[in-house]
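TA notes, week 10

Several of you asked for a full example with nothing omitted. So below is the full record: C-alpha cells for the whole chain, then the designed sequence directly under it. When grading your own attempts, check the secondary structure regions first.
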C-alpha cells in the first residue's frame, strides 16, 4: 500500500518515533535521508508517513516547523508555561527572563503560572510581569477557576511546561487533567533525574485536545545552547521596552548606559521593573561575546 497519512509526532525512543494520526498511533522509523540532512524528527513535528502496515510506518517527510527548541527537543510550540513558585524553591527571575526573551524571539507565547501562594501571599511578581507580554496566572488549588483558566487557554495547543524541580509542575498538570496521573514530589525525586540521564520528552494529549510536555527544569547551563539572540535584536524580546525604545536619543541606543535613553528613564521612573532591565543587561553582555560563526553554526539547527 502506497498511501500516506499525516500525523503528529508524540515521542521518540531509541530511534523509534510514535506518531498520532487519524488512523491511530504508529511506531515509525525515519528515512535515512534525515540523518544525511542532519535533522531528526522530534516531538511536536508534523510528519507524513508511508509504508503503513499494522501499527508501523515510515516517516517520509517532516513538514516545515514554525519553531523549535533544542533541549528538550520540541517543535511547533504554541505556548511555553513557565511554572514558578513564590518560595521553596524561590524563583530565579534572571533565568525566567532569559527564557521569556527566547520564547518571544521564537514567536512562542509565554504563560507564567505562579504556585505556592498559600506559602507566601505577598510577592511582587505580578508587578514585575504585568507588562512582560506573558500571560500571568496565580494558581490557587482552593479555587479551581485559577487553574482551569490555564486549561482553557491551552485548549487544542502544543504546550511545554517547564520550571525548576519542586515548583509544582506535575501537581499543576494533575489538577488541570486528572487522567494524567503524573508522579509528584518525593517519588519523582527518588527516581532521580541525574545530570546524565537521557531525557525523553513526550507529548501527552489532554481531554481538551492540548498536547503537553512535562519537561524537567531548564538549567542555567542549557540557556547558552538555545537560540542565539544578537544584541541588537534583544530589546525587542522585552515587550515592555517597546514603547520606549523609539524615544531614545540615539537610534542605535543599547539601553545600557546611554545618555537620553528612554528605557533607562522608564526604569528610573519605575515603569520598567529593575529586575527585567538587569536581565536584559546580563543577556546583552552575553550577546556581545557571540561570534558570528557561532550564530551560523547553531542558527536553525535542531
Ligand atoms: N503548599 C504548596 N505545595 C505545593 C503546591 N504545588 C505543589 N506543591 C508541592 O510541592 C512539591 C513538588 O511538587 P511537584 O508537582 O512534584 O513539582 P515538580 O517537580 O515541578 O513536578 C510537592 O510536595 C507538592 O505537593 C502549592 O501550590 N502549594
Ligand atoms: Mg514533576
Ligand atoms: Zn535606549
Amino acid at each position: 500500500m502506497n498511501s500516506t497519512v499525516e500525523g503528529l509526532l508524540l515521542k521518540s525512543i531509541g530511534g523509534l518515533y510514535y506518531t498520532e494520526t487519524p488512523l491511530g498511533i504508529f511506531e515509525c522509523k525515519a528515512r535515512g535521508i534525515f540523518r544525511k540532512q542532519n535533522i531528526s524528527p522530534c516531538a511536536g513535528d508534523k510528519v507524513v508517513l508511508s509504508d503503513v502496515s499494522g501499527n508501523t510506518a515510515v516517516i517520509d517527510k517532516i513538514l516545515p516547523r514554525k519553531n523549535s527548541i533544542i533541549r528538550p527537543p520540541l517543535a511547533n510550540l504554541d505556548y511555553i508555561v513557565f511554572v514558578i513558585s513564590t518560595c521553596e524553591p524561590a524563583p530565579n527571575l534572571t533565568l525566567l527572563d532569559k527564557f521569556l526573551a527566547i520564547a518571544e524571539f521564537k514567536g512562542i507565547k509565554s504563560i507564567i503560572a505562579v504556585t505556592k501562594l498559600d506559602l507566601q501571599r505577598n510577592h511582587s511578581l505580578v508587578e514585575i510581569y504585568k507588562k512582560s507580554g506573558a500571560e500571568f496566572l496565580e494558581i490557587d488549588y482552593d479555587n479551581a477557576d485559577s487553574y482551569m483558566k490555564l486549561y482553557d487557554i491551552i485548549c487544542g495547543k502544543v504546550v511545554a511546561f517547564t520550571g525548576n524541580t519542586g515548583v509544582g509542575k506535575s501537581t499543576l498538570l494533575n489538577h488541570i487533567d486528572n487522567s494524567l496521573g503524573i508522579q509528584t514530589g518525593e517519588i519523582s525525586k527518588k527516581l532521580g533525574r541525574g545530570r546524565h540521564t537521557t531525557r525523553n520528552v513526550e507529548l501527552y494529549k489532554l481531554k481538551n485536545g492540548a498536547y503537553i510536555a512535562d519537561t524537567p527544569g531548564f538549567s542555567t547551563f542549557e540557556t547558552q545552547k538555545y537560540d542565539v539572540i544578537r544584541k541588537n535584536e534583544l530589546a525587542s524580546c522585552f515587550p515592555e521596552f517597546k514603547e520606549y525604545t523609539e524615544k531614545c536619543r540615539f537610534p542605535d541606543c543599547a539601553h545600557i548606559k546611554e545618555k537620553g535613553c528612554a528605557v533607562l528613564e522608564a526604569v528610573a521612573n519605575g515603569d520598567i521593573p529593575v529586575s527585567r532591565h538587569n536581565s536584559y543587561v546580563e543577556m546583552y553582555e552575553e550577546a556581545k561575546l557571540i561570534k558570528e560563526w557561532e550564530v551560523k553554526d547553531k542558527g536553525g539547527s535542531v
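The mean pLDDT is 88. Use that as a sanity check on your answer.
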